[in-house]
Amino acid sequence: MLEEVRRVEPFRHEHPPVRNVNQEFNDSFSVLERVALFVTSHVGTFYFFLLILTWTALWLGWNTLGPVNLRFDPAPAFVFWLFISNMIQIMLMPLIMVGQNLSSRHAEIRAESDFEINQKAEKEIEVILLHLEQQAAQIERQGELILEILKRLSAQEEVPPVQGQTA
Predict the structure, then answer these.
(1) Which of 13, 21, 52, 166 might form a disulfide with 113, Cβ 3.0–4.6 angstroms?
(2) pTM as predicted
(3) Angle at 14 between CA 8 and CA 18, to 5 degrees
Protein backbone atom coordinates (compact mmCIF):
# COMPACT_ATOMS: atom_id res chain seq x y z
CA MET A 1 0.00 0.00 0.00
CA LEU A 2 2.69 2.55 0.95
CA GLU A 3 4.82 1.49 -1.98
CA GLU A 4 2.12 2.94 -4.21
CA VAL A 5 3.04 6.48 -3.12
CA ARG A 6 5.10 7.97 -5.94
CA ARG A 7 7.76 10.57 -5.41
CA VAL A 8 7.36 13.83 -7.30
CA GLU A 9 10.50 14.99 -9.04
CA PRO A 10 11.81 18.24 -7.57
CA PHE A 11 11.17 21.35 -9.64
CA ARG A 12 14.20 22.19 -11.75
CA HIS A 13 14.19 24.56 -14.65
CA GLU A 14 17.32 25.84 -16.24
CA HIS A 15 17.53 28.41 -18.99
CA PRO A 16 20.11 30.86 -20.22
CA PRO A 17 20.20 34.13 -18.32
CA VAL A 18 18.16 37.03 -19.58
CA ARG A 19 20.32 39.27 -21.70
CA ASN A 20 20.60 42.98 -21.08
CA VAL A 21 19.48 44.37 -24.43
CA ASN A 22 20.01 47.95 -23.32
CA GLN A 23 23.68 47.25 -22.69
CA GLU A 24 24.00 45.30 -25.94
CA PHE A 25 22.35 48.15 -27.81
CA ASN A 26 24.58 50.81 -26.23
CA ASP A 27 27.69 48.75 -26.97
CA SER A 28 26.74 48.47 -30.65
CA PHE A 29 27.01 52.22 -31.38
CA SER A 30 29.67 53.85 -33.43
CA VAL A 31 30.95 57.28 -32.40
CA LEU A 32 28.77 58.99 -35.01
CA GLU A 33 25.69 57.10 -33.86
CA ARG A 34 26.39 58.19 -30.27
CA VAL A 35 26.60 61.81 -31.46
CA ALA A 36 23.32 61.45 -33.36
CA LEU A 37 21.56 60.00 -30.30
CA PHE A 38 23.00 62.70 -28.06
CA VAL A 39 21.81 65.46 -30.37
CA THR A 40 18.41 63.82 -30.89
CA SER A 41 17.84 63.43 -27.17
CA HIS A 42 18.90 67.01 -26.39
CA VAL A 43 17.20 68.84 -29.28
CA GLY A 44 13.81 67.75 -28.02
CA THR A 45 14.28 69.30 -24.59
CA PHE A 46 12.95 72.53 -23.15
CA TYR A 47 16.54 73.63 -22.50
CA PHE A 48 17.30 73.49 -26.21
CA PHE A 49 14.18 75.55 -26.87
CA LEU A 50 15.36 78.12 -24.30
CA LEU A 51 18.83 78.14 -25.89
CA ILE A 52 17.40 78.87 -29.35
CA LEU A 53 14.97 81.42 -27.92
CA THR A 54 17.76 83.21 -26.04
CA TRP A 55 20.08 83.16 -29.08
CA THR A 56 17.29 84.55 -31.29
CA ALA A 57 16.28 87.25 -28.79
CA LEU A 58 19.89 88.37 -28.32
CA TRP A 59 20.63 88.32 -32.06
CA LEU A 60 17.50 90.22 -33.07
CA GLY A 61 17.68 92.55 -30.08
CA TRP A 62 21.31 93.49 -30.74
CA ASN A 63 20.72 94.04 -34.44
CA THR A 64 17.59 96.09 -33.76
CA LEU A 65 18.47 98.06 -30.62
CA GLY A 66 22.28 97.94 -30.51
CA PRO A 67 24.62 100.75 -31.60
CA VAL A 68 24.16 101.34 -35.30
CA ASN A 69 27.86 101.04 -36.13
CA LEU A 70 28.06 97.59 -34.31
CA ARG A 71 25.02 95.99 -35.92
CA PHE A 72 26.16 93.18 -38.20
CA ASP A 73 22.76 91.88 -39.47
CA PRO A 74 20.56 94.87 -40.33
CA ALA A 75 16.86 94.87 -39.52
CA PRO A 76 14.25 94.08 -40.74
CA ALA A 77 15.66 91.41 -43.09
CA PHE A 78 18.08 89.70 -40.66
CA VAL A 79 19.54 87.80 -43.62
CA PHE A 80 22.49 86.35 -41.71
CA TRP A 81 20.21 85.20 -38.85
CA LEU A 82 17.87 83.52 -41.36
CA PHE A 83 20.84 81.86 -43.05
CA ILE A 84 22.21 80.47 -39.75
CA SER A 85 18.71 79.40 -38.62
CA ASN A 86 18.16 77.54 -41.90
CA MET A 87 21.58 75.89 -41.63
CA ILE A 88 20.76 74.70 -38.12
CA GLN A 89 17.45 73.29 -39.36
CA ILE A 90 19.03 71.63 -42.40
CA MET A 91 21.72 70.02 -40.24
CA LEU A 92 19.37 68.92 -37.48
CA MET A 93 16.67 67.35 -39.66
CA PRO A 94 18.72 64.41 -40.98
CA LEU A 95 20.55 64.07 -37.67
CA ILE A 96 17.24 63.79 -35.82
CA MET A 97 16.02 61.22 -38.35
CA VAL A 98 19.19 59.16 -37.77
CA GLY A 99 18.61 59.35 -34.03
CA GLN A 100 14.98 58.30 -34.46
CA ASN A 101 16.06 55.35 -36.59
CA LEU A 102 18.48 54.29 -33.87
CA SER A 103 15.76 54.68 -31.24
CA SER A 104 13.36 52.57 -33.29
CA ARG A 105 16.08 49.92 -33.67
CA HIS A 106 16.37 49.93 -29.88
CA ALA A 107 12.60 49.54 -29.53
CA GLU A 108 12.65 46.55 -31.89
CA ILE A 109 15.46 44.90 -29.92
CA ARG A 110 13.57 45.49 -26.66
CA ALA A 111 10.39 44.04 -28.17
CA GLU A 112 12.30 40.95 -29.32
CA SER A 113 13.79 40.57 -25.84
CA ASP A 114 10.35 40.95 -24.23
CA PHE A 115 9.04 38.23 -26.52
CA GLU A 116 11.90 35.90 -25.52
CA ILE A 117 11.27 36.60 -21.83
CA ASN A 118 7.54 35.96 -22.28
CA GLN A 119 8.28 32.64 -23.98
CA LYS A 120 10.58 31.62 -21.09
CA ALA A 121 7.94 32.68 -18.57
CA GLU A 122 5.28 30.66 -20.38
CA LYS A 123 7.48 27.55 -20.29
CA GLU A 124 8.21 28.08 -16.61
CA ILE A 125 4.51 28.52 -15.86
CA GLU A 126 3.73 25.29 -17.73
CA VAL A 127 6.35 23.44 -15.64
CA ILE A 128 4.96 24.94 -12.42
CA LEU A 129 1.39 24.02 -13.36
CA LEU A 130 2.45 20.47 -14.19
CA HIS A 131 4.26 20.27 -10.86
CA LEU A 132 1.17 21.56 -9.02
CA GLU A 133 -1.03 19.02 -10.82
CA GLN A 134 1.35 16.25 -9.74
CA GLN A 135 1.27 17.51 -6.16
CA ALA A 136 -2.54 17.67 -6.20
CA ALA A 137 -2.67 14.09 -7.52
CA GLN A 138 -0.24 12.97 -4.80
CA ILE A 139 -2.28 14.69 -2.09
CA GLU A 140 -5.46 13.09 -3.39
CA ARG A 141 -3.78 9.67 -3.50
CA GLN A 142 -2.40 10.14 0.03
CA GLY A 143 -5.89 11.03 1.24
CA GLU A 144 -7.22 7.84 -0.34
CA LEU A 145 -4.46 5.81 1.32
CA ILE A 146 -5.19 7.38 4.70
CA LEU A 147 -8.89 6.54 4.31
CA GLU A 148 -7.99 2.97 3.35
CA ILE A 149 -5.70 2.64 6.38
CA LEU A 150 -8.43 4.03 8.66
CA LYS A 151 -10.98 1.58 7.23
CA ARG A 152 -8.63 -1.35 7.83
CA LEU A 153 -7.87 -0.17 11.36
CA SER A 154 -11.55 0.21 12.18
CA ALA A 155 -12.25 -3.19 10.62
CA GLN A 156 -9.56 -4.77 12.83
CA GLU A 157 -11.06 -3.19 15.94
CA GLU A 158 -14.49 -4.61 15.13
CA VAL A 159 -13.17 -8.18 14.86
CA PRO A 160 -13.81 -9.92 18.18
CA PRO A 161 -10.70 -11.36 19.79
CA VAL A 162 -9.99 -15.02 19.16
CA GLN A 163 -10.72 -17.34 22.07
CA GLY A 164 -7.84 -17.65 24.38
CA GLN A 165 -6.45 -14.23 23.49
CA THR A 166 -6.78 -11.35 25.84
CA ALA A 167 -6.99 -7.81 24.80
Answers:
(1) 21
(2) 0.56
(3) 145
